Amino acid sequence: MTTASIEEPPQPPVLFRKTKWSVVWLLTMTLFSALTVGGLLAPIQEAVKADLGINDFQLAMIVGTATAIPAAILSLPIAWMVDHYTRVKLLIVLATLWALGTIGTAFAQDFYGLFAARLVAGVGAATAFPVLVSLLADVCMPERRGRAMLLVSIGAWAGAAAAFAIGGTLYGWLEANPSAFVAGMAPWRESHLLVGIGAAVLVLPLFLIREPVRHEVKEANPGFVQSLKTFWGRRYFLGSLYVGNFAGSLAEGAAALWIGSVLVRQYNQSPGEFGGWVGLVILGGGIVGSIIGGLTVDASQKLKMRGAILLPAVIATALSIPASAYPIMPNVTLFAWVLFALLTGGAVVNLVNSAAIAVLLPNEERATSLAALAIIGKFVGGPVTAAIIAWMAFLFEGPTGLGLTLTWLGVVTGFISLIGYWAAMRFAPQPAAEVTGEAEPVS
């Protein structure tokens, strides 16, 4: 056998394409809307609890399980649709659902009505991310995806910040001005109604997006069985990545669900007092982390080492572990700064997770892999986290019990996450652009 006969065939060239920043901006605004409505309940959940007469277990079901169910059941089917049908139309449907669910929350009269409204909102907000990333990856080159995702990541964190800033501040203002919009409506209800209407308006620009050509396709329209085989073939890489995300989601989910309650119970803050500054902390951490993550993702791809794109996630995870102590800080100022450090590291890791899948995997595998990532993040960050915290709360009683619970959870899961991302680097595949070609849009 000659040397020529065992050489690999030449790879098809990767076609240059100019980044479509208008589409990136629209996707950024869409993710901003999803994260805003998704987190709107967090800063005012104590008011909701008192108004509807629900208990902590029911509250945990609403803020965690109601959004985890859509992620667990629908993420993979929707990911299949992403890989086989028009993504823009799918995104419009999902955005419409989270707007309607948020408006419906304003009119819920009991636990069951609130759970149902949150469930509808969660169908859209909890399953849209793979659609967004799939579209984003096809409007820019692989070596520029870190910078493009930087903007989208900032939009996501801006949405999470807006949830606290708008939720807390708007609640406080409406509480002081009860007849400003809808007379006789509770401030938390008015907050959801106004934000839901805003989310509905943001659906309209999505009709301007044209379905982009699919790039880096290894096998166009693979069958379901073939997709499962391919997914299983990457089990070591994806499994390690999911372990890192699983552990990180516990700490992030705990922070997202319980920051408001910690500030109310341990620091005697009201939603009107902490809504603004918590929003700024979330936004600041998201912007700084997104900038660091976006730039380091593109820079790390130039390193001659396996899985180099995941190196920023490993470093950020290690640095974030001490920041898990934010809930036991002696005062609100230190609480804010340590929380900022934790959220900065989280923003880096989240961006690197998505960028690694968008760069290392072929087009037809991205949505499914991202959907699995979303299922882990939503399910673990919701009901699993709520159950663990409820159990651990019995171990740490007293006024600072919730803070101690969150701290221990963050430290332990931080080390597990670190091991997961280190292993993912070792099992990382060759970048998709080096082994794939091009395909036409799917209609």
Identify the strand order in the major beta sheet. Answer: 1-2
β-strand amount: under 5%
Question: Biggest β-sheet, characterized?
Answer: 2 strands, antiparallel
- Under CATH, the homologous superfamily reads MFS general substrate transporter like domains
Number of DSSP helices?
16
Radius of gyration from the alpha-carbon trace, in angstroms? 22 Å
Percent of residues in helices comes to over 70%
Instruction: Kindly name the structural category.
Output: mainly alpha
- Any guess at the CATH architecture? Up-down Bundle
Q: Would you state the CATH class?
A: Mainly Alpha
- Write down the overall geometry: globular
pLDDT averaged over residues = 80
Structure description:
- It is a multi-pass membrane protein.
- Keywords: Cell membrane, Membrane, Transmembrane, Transmembrane helix.
- Residues 22-432 form the Major facilitator superfamily (MFS) profile domain.
- The chain is an all-alpha fold and 443 residues long.
- It has a single domain, classed as Growth Hormone, Chain: A (Up-down Bundle).
- Helix content is 71%, strand content 1%.
- A two-stranded antiparallel sheet has the order 1-2.
- Helix 12 packs parallel to helix 14.
- It is globular.
- The N and C termini lie far apart (45 Å).
